[in-house]
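Structure first, sequence second, as always.
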């Protein structure tokens, strides 16, 4: 667990009991609540970045499709490029 051996975990547990004594359950609850809030905040930030990336990709794909459509219109002009000839009257 966390790359620690059982002996190291036991030493950490003994130090926690010595430091916090009878308040250990309360300290553990506060730590757990703080950790949960931190994870929730990080998930919210990650979701905002994902949404921003999705919107940017969506906008870029719309720009690319408009650009491709305008290029295809340039390939096939609807009107002749030279003016019509009118004979002298």
């Amino acid at each position: 667990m966390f790359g620690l051996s059982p002996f190291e975990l036991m030493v950490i547990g003994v130090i926690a009991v010595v430091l916090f004594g009878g308040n250990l359950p309360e300290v553990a609850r506060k730590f757990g609540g703080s950790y949960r809030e931190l994870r929730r905040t990080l998930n919210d930030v990650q979701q905002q970045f994902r949404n921003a990336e999705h919107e940017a990709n969506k906008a870029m794909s719309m720009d690319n499709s408009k650009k491709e459509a305008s290029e295809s219109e340039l390939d096939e002009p609807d009107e002749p490029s030279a003016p019509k000839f009118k004979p002298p009257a």
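Margin note: DSSP finds two helices and no strands in the chain.
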